[in-house]
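Milestone M4 deliverable, item 7.
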Amino acid sequence: MSVTIYHNSRCSKSRETLALLQSKSIEPTVVEYLKTPLTHDQISTLIDQLGFSSARDLMRTKETEYKTLNLKDETNETTLINAMVEHPKLIERPIVEHNGKAAIGRPPENVLSVL
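Output delivered:
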């Protein structure tokens, strides 16, 4: 079973989601997206896999970078995705991807729907 988790080890929900997967005997590929930023195409794919209608749905709108970059009123999807490429901290976490589907682990049990 090929499962990927986009993970931030400093985030409690991300750690809980990884532990949940491991408790189900799943050893996912761990992508520490703050150390290895995602590309524009990878983020676009995740948005589609998550079923989101906008890149904003994948963004952490309470982050300082969101306010500093004045993204609240931004309507251009490319600009929003580029902001996440340049500032990966803006990406909601954790994300688990499997078989062309993805889910955000908030709460961690949400990811079980894609396994």
